[in-house]
Amino acid sequence: MDFLRPTTWEEALAAKADRPDAVPIQGGTDVMVELNFDMRRPATLLDLGQVAELRAWGMEGGACRVGAGVPYTTIIEELGGPLPGLAQASRTVGSPQIRNRGSVGGNLGAASPAGDSHPPLLAADAVIEVESRDRGVRMIPATAFYLGVKRSALEPDELIRAVHVRPATGPQYFSKVGTRNAMVIAVCSFAIALRPGERRVGTGLGSAAPTPRRAYEAEELLARELDWQAPLDPALLRRFGELCAAAAAPIDDVRGTAAYRVHAIGVMARRTLTWAWNDHLGRRAA
Ligand SMILES: Cc1cc2nc3c(=O)[nH]c(=O)nc-3n(C[C@H](O)[C@H](O)[C@H](O)COP(=O)(O)OP(=O)(O)OC[C@H]3O[C@@H](n4cnc5c(N)ncnc54)[C@H](O)[C@@H]3O)c2cc1C
What SMART domains has UniProt attached to this entry (predicted)? Predict the structure, then answer.
């Protein structure tokens, strides 16, 4: 097996262009499991661990630009203010060791429907920055990134460089159902992002369909009917939960049944909207 170790982004892009079959490795928390269990045996590994810029984040054009290699621990410690939904999801990933190495870029590269970063990225209208040496940069909205089970819009000669997420303008929450409290892949998950200034609510469903997805009809319902000054109308809350559940298209598998997942999505949708709404009203009163 060849092991390529670029030290700059340009070298990394050149390596991927010359060897499109090379498998990128960032934190290795997915790739090393696949190698150890002989699930794949790539001819070439492209180690991105020496490309320092991938582990940095900063503000750019009014958005947080989070390098693809920024580990979950950094998101939790440094980005809880601007990106509370993503930080909350990051806290639920694996164990401290996994959070120290695992990255949002790796979660996107794996494109598992159960990946914990996807629902908050969808709810917050994130955009994925990808690049190839020969065709340059593409900015892909999260909604267009996930194409199928473990399939994304990334081309073989492209690498993920960063994720762009606008700082939260309202409460955000992430909720995950698992068979225990830690070290667990989601049975299903849900994220919500309130945008009081735009009178909009973003949603993200995880592990509830072949790809992470938004509940568009539920979002449209709230855009039409939410009174942003008033307590939540119980009938509207119930309808929101029903439409989120209806957006799910899950399967039965070892982690849970489709019927349970549909039910749980509805519960998490109602619960997270209630939490977020209480925060929203509390902020207005303060
Ligand atoms: C014990 C354990 C517990 C886990 N728990 C969770 C959990 O609770 N929630 C969860 O979501 N995940 C979990 N995971 C999976 C994994 O930790 C996450 O998916 C993590 O985000 C992967 O990040 P990484 O940097 O380690 O990726 P890697 O393993 O380095 O890469 C993952 C994939 O992304 C590709 N890739 C990496 N970087 C790039 C790039 N810059 N451009 C293009 N492609 C790239 C790789 O080729 C590979 O296909 C767990 C894994 C383990 C081993």
Answer: CO_deh_flav_C
Q: Is position 261 within any domain?
A: yes
Most informative mutation of 4, 23, 26 for ligand 1 (most atoms within 8 A of CB): 26
Domain count, the chain: 1
In a domain, 22, yes or no: no
- The reply to whether 193 falls in a domain is yes
User: Residue 124 Cα, ligand 1 centroid: separation in angstroms?
Assistant: 21
Residue 150 lies in a domain: no
Distance of alpha carbon 215 from alpha carbon 218, whole angstroms: 5
- Mean pLDDT over residues 54-78, rounded? 98
pLDDT digit string (tens) for 74-85? 999 999 999 999
Residue 51 Cα distances to 12, 22, 25, 111, 161, angstroms: 8, 16, 11, 22, 10
Helix, coil or strand: residue 42: coil
Amino acid at 252: D
Residues with Cβ < 8 Å from 62, sequence gap 6 or more?
A: 166
Ligand 1 pocket, residues with Cβ under 6 angstroms: 23-31, 33, 48, 68, 92-94, 98, 101-103, 105-107, 109-110, 115-116, 154, 159-160, 183, 185
Model-wide pTM > 0.90? yes
CATH of the domain at 207: 3.30.390.50
Read off the tokens for 246.
Answer: 């209806």
Report pLDDT digits (tens) over 228-265: 999 999 999 999 999 999 999 999 999 999 999 999 99
